[in-house]
Each structure stands twice: as structure tokens, then as C-alpha cells.
Amino acid sequence: MRPAMPGKPGARSLTQVLRPSSSRPRCSIAHGAFGTNLTRFACCALAACSLFESACKSDPEPPHPTPSATASTVSSPPQSGASAAVSAVAAKVAEAPHAPRNVLLLTIDSLRADMPWAGYPRAIAPNLTKLAEQSVVYNNAYALSSYTAKSVAGFLSSRYPSTLYRSGFFFATYPKSDLFLAEVLKQHGVATTAWHGHGYFRSAGLEQGFDTWQLVPGIEFNPETDEGITSQAMTELGMKLLKKPESTGKQFFAWAHYMDPHDQYNKHPEASPEFGNKNRDRYDNEVYYTDLWLGKLLTWAREQQWWKDTVLIISADHGEAFGEHGFYKHAFEIWDVLTRVPLMISGPGIQPRRIDERRSHLDLAPTILDLMGFPPEPEFMGKSMLPELQGAAPDNREPILSELTEDSHNPLRRAFIVGDYKLLVLDGRKYQLYNLSKDPGELTDLADSEPAKLTEIKRAYSKLYETLPMIEPYGGATLKGGGSARGPLGPPAPGK
Question: Taking a C-beta distance cutoff of 8 angstroms, is the pair 80, 366 a contact?
């Protein structure tokens, strides 16, 4: 979970605002100052989008770039009169009520965006590649951060990491004052199950709301790397848990996080083709091995009675670097190769296609709530993707934000993507600007050569961040920039 490569020293974070008090810190907050903040956040996001008219493009880093994808389009042939009529029917389907579903969320650690279904030439994930043909595939999906502890908490809460109560250590922990998806589902009577292959998940606070939360047996926690090989054990544990009536005997949400693509990179000669001995080669072996055991889990799941009513979501917590920008592994920086991730969704009522509009993990939890037939959670910042999963035209949800909050090892980093451009904010005071349509590898900083564009995007970035209810970390850790984590564990008590 923690790459061995250290980050550069960072400064203290920007002036941050505590989330206003609530009399129900772990429940919905639909009124008062916080509700106003969310409304302002949405309005500013729309205002930021309106500043730009250029189309959105994004490609993964070398050495294996995927074909460029243009936003505001769906990857499909031009419409004839007949196909237009079909689209009209699809739009009506998207508006129609849907039966509540189960949701199975499978996330894969360190899985890059440049997978075979996105143009990578090696057949390193045959099961997932076949699944992509039956799914809505998002060509430009972004994680909320570039490493597990911040990314996972973000997508489970539909909140940016800087707006969560959290400790100031690299392996952040989360208090009960944060509201996570499983807690909301539990309030609706949903069975919630999760299983994991890394020791970080043992006591991070992410288990809130889960009826069942298990780790594969025998794993040891190493803060520098992942020494385990756990895909087989993960699949076997998943089958064991999902067989239980208490897990799947009523509407359920299940989540598993597979670890093996994380370094250390192992070759698995008994199960994977020979790809070579370089880091990327051995990583490809890990992806193949993980895909093999994911395939076994899904083959078994398709035979279960509950499968016909279940939506499957596949994604990753972050990407992985293999020398891009002189960088390896993940965390510490916020380049696209670290934050772009696969995302595919399949199941009953979902129309397979490719969507090029950029999407954020911020939208995962709201989408799951919608799929399961429940109303939006006011504390969630994202927006459901269900209409476009059922055939509606995708909307523009930019700007896309990813961030590293400052902690004991990570400097403050933020990425703000809108139109063709990506603004990188380093330590809250230095800015870099990239044109992702012309420079998907983020190799040429345009901050000096395009000062007007830099000013325009900085203005939109600042306006948006002014609305976010950011929170300082707690726990006393010495932060990367030399400060101390002295933030709150939750909102102040009512009346204080």
C-alpha cells in the first residue's frame, strides 16, 4: 500500500474550513450550513464547467498509451433514422422505474487504465476483457487520490479526501463521525459484506456499516510493500461468504478489494504466461493472475440464484507508474498515470457501450444507492450515473478533482481537470498546466507559455475550493511540510 519512493517535502495545506456542526454527525445532513456548502459546491462546479468550451480528452501515460478519447461523446457509430428511434426508446427506458438490485463491487489495487480493453497489446486480463464487452466501460474514469488510504475512503463516502475526518498518518484511519456507504445501506436494511487481502483494512475505520468484514487468513502487515499472494484466497473467501444466507438472503451489497497487482510483482509461472522480467512484465503477470481468480469468482457467481438481480462494478483504487516522470509505484504525486483507473459496470437493465466523458469515483456511492432503489444521501457529494447506464446521454461533470491531502509522508497535491487542460497544484502555491489532448503524458508544462489560460483555470480552481468544507487531519502526526496534525475527530457538539 505504501510505495518505497519518498515524496518531496511539502508545505502546510491551504486555509481549511471545518465542516459545520450537525446534531446527527453520522446521519444525513440536509439542512443548515453544510447543506448550503454542498449547494454552493454544486453551483461552483457548474460555473467552473461553463468557463470552458473545449472538448475533454485524456490518455494514459507511455509506455502503452490507450487511444485518445474525446469527451461529450459516446463511442458509437453515427445514428441513422432507425438508430435514433432506438435511442429515443433507450431514453424512455432510462426514465422508467427499475427493480432494486444487489451490487457486487470488485476493486483491484494498482490496476492501470491501460488494460487490454483500452488498447494495451498484451492479453493480460482475458476475463475482464470479455466482461468489458458486456459492460458500460468508462474510458476516462478517475480515482479521488493516488493511493489506497485516501482513494478508498473517498469512494466509500462520496467525498473528497480533504473533507473527511482522518488521521494525519500515511495509513490514514477514519473515525465514526465520517459517513460511509455501508452505513447508509444498513439503515435501509441491506446486508453488507466485505473481504480484503491487506492488513491495512484490519483497523482503518472503513468497516463502518458492514455486517461482515473479513481479511484473508495469514496475511502480515508490511508498511513498505505487499508480500502476500492472495487472489486465490480472496476468491475462496468470497465464495464462502456469499454462500451464507445472512450475506445474500436479502438485498445485499458486497465489496472485495483484490491486492496482487500491488508491488511486490510476482510472476506466477504455474498460472500466467511468460511476459518478461522487467517491472511492467512482472506486473502484467500479477494482473493475469488476479484476472484468473476474478474469473473463477464470477463464473461461480453467475450460477447463484441472486446473480440475475445483481449489478457488477469493476474498478481500481489508483494506477501504477513504471518510470513515467521518473516515478515508480504510486502515492506522493497526482499524475494521470496514478489517478486514471478502469471502470466498468454490467448487469440487468444496463446497456453495454463505451462512454468517453470523464467520471470520478465521487459518483460511485450515489450510483450504488440509485441502483439499489434508495434516495440520494445528502452528505454525498457525487451524482448517480444510473441514467447513462440505462441509455441516457452522458452529461459533462467536470471539473474532475483528485488530491493528496498532506500527511506524514505525502505532500499536498491537487489536480483540477476541465476541458483539454489539467492544473496541478503543488503544496498549495506552485502551479503546473498541461494540455491533456495534445500532451496526455503531461510532459510539457504550459504555465509560462499560456499565462492567460493558467489564470483562467486557477480562478475556477480557487472558486471551487473555497466552497469545499475542508478538514485538518488529527492525531498529532508531523506532516510532510513540518506542521502537526491537530484537527478534529468530528463536528463540534450542538451549541458549541
Answer: no
The confidence score (pLDDT) of residue 496 equals 64
**Burial class of residue 229 (count of CB atoms within 10 Å of its CB; 0-12, 13-18, 19+):** middle
Q: CA torsion, points 153, 200, 185, 35, in degrees to nearest 10?
A: -20
> Greatest CA span in the chain, whole angstroms?
64
Query: Helix (H) and strand (E) counts for the chain?
Result: 12, 20
Contacts of 401 (CB under 8 A, 6+ apart): 144, 160, 360, 362, 414, 415, 416, 417, 464
Kindly list the domain boundaries of the chain, sorted by start residue.
Answer: 97-389
Q: Which three cell numbers stand for residue 94?
A: 432510462
Which amino acid, 203? S
The mean pLDDT value for 111-127 works out to: 97
Q: How far apart are CA 317 and CA 338, in angstroms?
A: 10
Q: What is the pLDDT of residues 368-418, one digit of tens each?
A: 999 999 999 999 999 999 999 999 999 999 999 999 999 999 999 999 999
- Assign residue 110 a region (left: φ > 0; alpha: ψ between -120 and 50; beta: otherwise): left
The x, y and z cell numbers of residue 307, run together, are 446473480
R_g over Cα of the chain = 21
For residue range 336-347, what is the model confidence (pLDDT) as tens digits? 999 999 999 999
- Per-residue cell: 200: 491495512
Torsion of CA 390, 394, 398, 402, to 10 degrees: 40
**What residue ranges in 38-122 does DSSP mark as E strands?**
57-58, 69-70, 74-75, 102-108
Give residue for cell 482513494.
Answer: 151
Please count the residues of the chain. 496
Select from 3.90.230.10, 3.40.50.720, 3.50.50.60, 3.40.720.10 the CATH code of 97-389: 3.40.720.10
Q: How far is the first Cα of the chain from the last one, in angstroms, to the nearest whole number?
A: 38
The model's pLDDT over 191-202, given as tens digits with 9 standing for 90+, comes to 999 999 999 999
Tell me the per-residue pLDDT of 346-358, one tens digit each, with 9 for 90 and over. Answer: 999 999 999 999 9
3-state secondary structure 25-49: CCCCCCCHHHHHHHHHHHHHHHHHH
> Quick one: which of 204, 146, 17, 307 has its CA closest to 215?
204
